[in-house]
Design goal:
about 140 residues; three-stranded parallel β-sheet; globular
């Protein structure tokens, strides 16, 4: 575990030295929303983890599919540590015999929404289908 943390620290230092990464950080200081495109594979996860670590802010990432979101969440957990990465699960069509997994989905959605409401810094990975679902508005 310590080796992983050392590798991640070194990778983040290299990323910090990159002018394009520094430009994104500067743009984030000026703007409330920043869109970054063009990253491939695990470079997305490294970028997201470094951004979260250096800014102390929450980072929300919208993914095209549930599979892409799960993969990115696993990769980001490697670079940032599993506790800071949250995957917002979608509501799935549930059959009566799958009620126990529905409860797991409900618990995870509540955990993610609670973290966001309490404004705790986190990396939140969101599959597109989740944004298409209605949630109860904040009180």
């Amino acid at each position: 575990m310590k080796l992983t943390h050392t590798v991640n620290t070194e990778l983040q230092k290299l990323l910090q030295a990159d002018p394009a990464f520094r430009a994104v950080l500067e743009r984030m200081d000026r703007e409330s929303e920043t869109r970054v495109t063009g990253l491939k594979g695990s470079s997305k996860a490294l970028f997201i983890a470094a951004l979260h670590e250096l800014t102390g802010r929450s980072v929300a990432v919208l993914c095209a599919s549930g599979e892409e979101a799960r993969t990115l969440a696993q990769d980001a957990a490697f670079f940032a540590g599993g506790d800071s990465v949250l995957l917002m699960p979608p509501w799935d069509l549930m059959l009566p015999d799958a009620l126990s997994s529905q409860k797991d989905v409900e618990r995870e959605r509540i955990r993610v929404l609670s973290t966001l409401i309490e404004e705790k810094p986190a990396i939140v990975i969101i599959p597109r289908q989740v944004l298409l679902q209605k949630v109860v508005p904040r009180g």
